[in-house]
Write a structure and sequence with these properties.
The complex is a heterodimer of chains A (about 140) and B (about 90). With about 140 residues, chain A is mainly beta. Chain A has one helix and eight strands, in the order E-E-E-E-H-E-E-E-E. The radius of gyration of chain A is 18 Å and the shape is globular. The two termini of chain A are about 25 Å apart. Classes of the chains: A mainly beta (about 140), B alpha+beta (about 90). At the A-B interface, strand 2 and helix 1 of A face helix 1 of B.
Chain lengths: ~140, ~90
Protein backbone atom coordinates (compact mmCIF):
# COMPACT_ATOMS: atom_id res chain seq x y z
CA UNK A 1 0.00 0.00 0.00
CA UNK A 2 1.28 3.44 -0.90
CA UNK A 3 0.74 6.75 0.82
CA UNK A 4 -0.24 10.00 -0.89
CA UNK A 5 2.93 11.88 -0.04
CA UNK A 6 2.98 15.54 -1.04
CA UNK A 7 5.19 18.57 -0.69
CA UNK A 8 3.78 21.25 1.60
CA UNK A 9 2.95 24.06 -0.80
CA UNK A 10 -0.77 24.74 -0.68
CA UNK A 11 -1.83 24.98 2.96
CA UNK A 12 -4.78 27.18 3.79
CA UNK A 13 -4.34 29.30 6.91
CA UNK A 14 -7.08 31.54 8.25
CA UNK A 15 -6.67 34.02 11.10
CA UNK A 16 -9.81 35.69 12.47
CA UNK A 17 -11.63 34.75 9.26
CA UNK A 18 -9.03 36.28 6.93
CA UNK A 19 -7.12 34.10 4.47
CA UNK A 20 -3.48 34.45 5.56
CA UNK A 21 -2.07 31.52 3.61
CA UNK A 22 0.41 33.61 1.65
CA UNK A 23 1.74 35.35 4.77
CA UNK A 24 3.06 32.14 6.38
CA UNK A 25 5.84 29.85 5.17
CA UNK A 26 5.42 27.30 7.93
CA UNK A 27 2.50 26.37 10.12
CA UNK A 28 1.35 23.61 12.43
CA UNK A 29 -0.06 22.82 15.82
CA UNK A 30 0.92 21.07 18.99
CA UNK A 31 -1.27 19.17 21.43
CA UNK A 32 0.80 18.15 24.39
CA UNK A 33 -0.28 16.17 27.44
CA UNK A 34 1.65 16.65 30.64
CA UNK A 35 3.18 13.47 32.06
CA UNK A 36 1.94 12.77 35.57
CA UNK A 37 4.16 10.33 37.41
CA UNK A 38 2.15 7.71 39.27
CA UNK A 39 5.02 5.29 39.72
CA UNK A 40 5.17 2.98 42.68
CA UNK A 41 7.70 0.41 43.65
CA UNK A 42 7.85 -2.40 41.14
CA UNK A 43 10.08 -5.24 40.01
CA UNK A 44 10.84 -3.55 36.66
CA UNK A 45 11.46 -0.09 38.06
CA UNK A 46 9.85 1.41 34.97
CA UNK A 47 8.11 4.77 35.35
CA UNK A 48 4.32 4.61 35.29
CA UNK A 49 2.68 7.75 33.94
CA UNK A 50 -0.75 9.11 33.18
CA UNK A 51 -1.80 11.98 30.96
CA UNK A 52 -2.23 15.22 32.84
CA UNK A 53 -3.29 18.62 31.59
CA UNK A 54 -3.24 19.24 27.84
CA UNK A 55 -1.77 22.34 26.24
CA UNK A 56 -2.64 23.14 22.63
CA UNK A 57 -1.73 25.82 20.15
CA UNK A 58 -0.78 26.71 16.59
CA UNK A 59 2.64 28.00 15.60
CA UNK A 60 3.85 29.48 12.34
CA UNK A 61 6.48 31.66 10.73
CA UNK A 62 4.82 34.77 9.38
CA UNK A 63 6.17 37.51 7.15
CA UNK A 64 5.74 40.91 8.75
CA UNK A 65 4.06 43.26 6.29
CA UNK A 66 1.76 46.22 6.72
CA UNK A 67 -1.15 43.84 6.13
CA UNK A 68 -0.09 41.25 8.70
CA UNK A 69 0.73 43.97 11.22
CA UNK A 70 -2.72 45.48 10.74
CA UNK A 71 -4.31 42.13 11.50
CA UNK A 72 -2.09 40.64 14.19
CA UNK A 73 -1.11 43.64 16.29
CA UNK A 74 -4.68 44.66 17.30
CA UNK A 75 -5.53 41.02 18.06
CA UNK A 76 -2.57 40.83 20.42
CA UNK A 77 -2.96 44.31 21.86
CA UNK A 78 -6.65 43.83 22.69
CA UNK A 79 -6.16 40.24 23.91
CA UNK A 80 -8.89 39.21 21.50
CA UNK A 81 -10.03 35.61 21.20
CA UNK A 82 -10.30 34.69 17.53
CA UNK A 83 -10.46 31.65 15.28
CA UNK A 84 -7.32 30.10 13.82
CA UNK A 85 -7.76 27.47 11.12
CA UNK A 86 -5.22 25.32 9.29
CA UNK A 87 -6.08 23.07 6.36
CA UNK A 88 -3.05 21.21 4.99
CA UNK A 89 -3.12 21.38 1.16
CA UNK A 90 -6.46 23.17 1.51
CA UNK A 91 -5.86 25.72 -1.26
CA UNK A 92 -6.04 22.95 -3.87
CA UNK A 93 -8.03 20.27 -2.05
CA UNK A 94 -10.98 21.47 0.01
CA UNK A 95 -11.77 17.92 1.14
CA UNK A 96 -8.78 17.92 3.49
CA UNK A 97 -9.29 18.08 7.23
CA UNK A 98 -9.33 21.54 8.78
CA UNK A 99 -7.96 22.00 12.28
CA UNK A 100 -9.37 25.03 14.06
CA UNK A 101 -9.63 26.57 17.51
CA UNK A 102 -10.36 29.81 19.28
CA UNK A 103 -7.00 31.28 20.26
CA UNK A 104 -5.13 34.27 21.60
CA UNK A 105 -1.90 35.68 20.26
CA UNK A 106 -0.03 35.94 23.55
CA UNK A 107 3.31 37.06 22.11
CA UNK A 108 3.93 39.42 19.24
CA UNK A 109 7.62 40.14 18.72
CA UNK A 110 8.46 41.29 15.21
CA UNK A 111 12.13 41.99 14.70
CA UNK A 112 14.23 43.28 11.83
CA UNK A 113 17.53 41.87 10.64
CA UNK A 114 19.42 43.77 7.98
CA UNK A 115 19.14 42.16 4.58
CA UNK A 116 16.62 39.57 5.71
CA UNK A 117 12.85 39.47 5.21
CA UNK A 118 10.74 40.72 8.09
CA UNK A 119 9.52 37.58 9.81
CA UNK A 120 8.47 36.44 13.22
CA UNK A 121 7.20 33.33 14.95
CA UNK A 122 3.51 33.57 15.74
CA UNK A 123 2.27 31.34 18.54
CA UNK A 124 -1.48 31.07 18.98
CA UNK A 125 -2.49 29.58 22.34
CA UNK A 126 -5.85 27.87 22.54
CA UNK A 127 -8.20 29.97 24.69
CA UNK A 128 -11.31 27.82 24.59
CA UNK A 129 -12.21 24.64 26.50
CA UNK A 130 -13.13 22.83 23.28
CA UNK A 131 -9.49 22.91 22.21
CA UNK A 132 -8.48 22.14 18.65
CA UNK A 133 -11.35 20.59 16.71
CA UNK A 134 -11.62 19.29 13.16
CA UNK A 135 -14.10 19.63 10.34
CA UNK B 1 -29.17 44.03 14.95
CA UNK B 2 -28.55 40.29 15.03
CA UNK B 3 -27.84 39.41 11.41
CA UNK B 4 -26.48 41.30 8.44
CA UNK B 5 -25.62 41.16 4.77
CA UNK B 6 -21.90 41.78 4.32
CA UNK B 7 -19.61 42.39 1.36
CA UNK B 8 -15.96 41.37 1.32
CA UNK B 9 -14.00 44.54 0.61
CA UNK B 10 -10.49 43.45 1.60
CA UNK B 11 -7.96 41.96 -0.80
CA UNK B 12 -8.10 38.53 0.82
CA UNK B 13 -10.82 35.96 1.32
CA UNK B 14 -12.92 36.39 4.42
CA UNK B 15 -14.45 33.19 5.86
CA UNK B 16 -14.03 31.61 2.44
CA UNK B 17 -15.77 34.43 0.57
CA UNK B 18 -13.66 36.10 -2.13
CA UNK B 19 -13.38 39.84 -2.58
CA UNK B 20 -16.55 41.45 -3.90
CA UNK B 21 -18.92 38.68 -2.87
CA UNK B 22 -21.67 39.03 -0.31
CA UNK B 23 -22.73 36.77 2.52
CA UNK B 24 -25.19 36.75 5.38
CA UNK B 25 -24.03 36.09 8.91
CA UNK B 26 -25.00 36.52 12.51
CA UNK B 27 -23.32 39.59 13.94
CA UNK B 28 -20.49 38.87 16.35
CA UNK B 29 -17.31 40.48 17.64
CA UNK B 30 -15.20 38.87 14.91
CA UNK B 31 -17.36 40.48 12.21
CA UNK B 32 -17.09 43.82 14.00
CA UNK B 33 -13.29 43.50 14.01
CA UNK B 34 -13.36 42.68 10.29
CA UNK B 35 -15.48 45.78 9.64
CA UNK B 36 -13.04 47.91 11.64
CA UNK B 37 -10.10 46.49 9.66
CA UNK B 38 -11.86 47.15 6.36
CA UNK B 39 -12.04 43.48 5.39
CA UNK B 40 -15.83 43.60 5.03
CA UNK B 41 -18.61 46.17 5.11
CA UNK B 42 -22.18 45.96 6.25
CA UNK B 43 -24.61 46.26 3.35
CA UNK B 44 -27.90 45.80 5.18
CA UNK B 45 -29.39 44.50 8.35
CA UNK B 46 -31.16 41.19 7.96
CA UNK B 47 -34.08 39.86 9.94
CA UNK B 48 -33.98 36.07 9.62
CA UNK B 49 -37.38 34.75 8.59
CA UNK B 50 -39.12 32.12 6.52
CA UNK B 51 -40.95 33.56 3.55
CA UNK B 52 -44.45 32.15 3.01
CA UNK B 53 -44.24 29.37 0.44
CA UNK B 54 -40.47 28.99 0.80
CA UNK B 55 -40.76 25.86 2.86
CA UNK B 56 -42.76 22.66 2.80
CA UNK B 57 -43.59 20.17 5.50
CA UNK B 58 -42.55 16.56 4.88
CA UNK B 59 -45.15 14.63 2.91
CA UNK B 60 -45.79 12.31 5.87
CA UNK B 61 -46.45 15.19 8.25
CA UNK B 62 -48.63 15.45 10.27
CA UNK B 63 -48.65 11.69 10.97
CA UNK B 64 -51.97 9.92 11.15
CA UNK B 65 -52.99 8.92 14.67
CA UNK B 66 -52.25 5.20 14.13
CA UNK B 67 -48.63 5.95 13.20
CA UNK B 68 -48.03 8.49 15.92
CA UNK B 69 -45.40 7.45 18.44
CA UNK B 70 -46.81 5.93 21.60
CA UNK B 71 -46.73 8.02 24.74
CA UNK B 72 -44.21 6.75 27.20
CA UNK B 73 -45.45 8.83 30.09
CA UNK B 74 -48.68 8.56 32.02
CA UNK B 75 -51.54 10.75 30.99
CA UNK B 76 -51.29 14.11 32.65
CA UNK B 77 -54.90 14.02 33.73
CA UNK B 78 -54.55 10.56 35.34
CA UNK B 79 -55.50 10.79 39.03
CA UNK B 80 -52.74 10.24 41.52
CA UNK B 81 -55.14 9.46 44.38
CA UNK B 82 -58.43 7.64 44.29
CA UNK B 83 -61.14 9.01 46.46
CA UNK B 84 -62.17 6.57 49.15
CA UNK B 85 -59.24 4.29 48.49
CA UNK B 86 -56.09 3.61 50.44
CA UNK B 87 -57.63 1.61 53.26
Amino acid sequence: MTFTKKTALHDRISIDGVDMSNAFDSFGFTSDDQDVDVSGFSVSGVDETLSGTRAEGFTGEVFITKETEALLWPLHKNRDIFEVAWQPDGLVDNTRTTYHALCQLRTFDPTAQRGQPYKTTATFKVADPNGITTS
Amino acid sequence: MTHGLFEVTGRREYRGHVTGTRFEARMDVALQRAINRGDIRLIAEVEPSLEPGSYQLPTDWPPIAADAPAHTEGRREAPLLVEGGGK
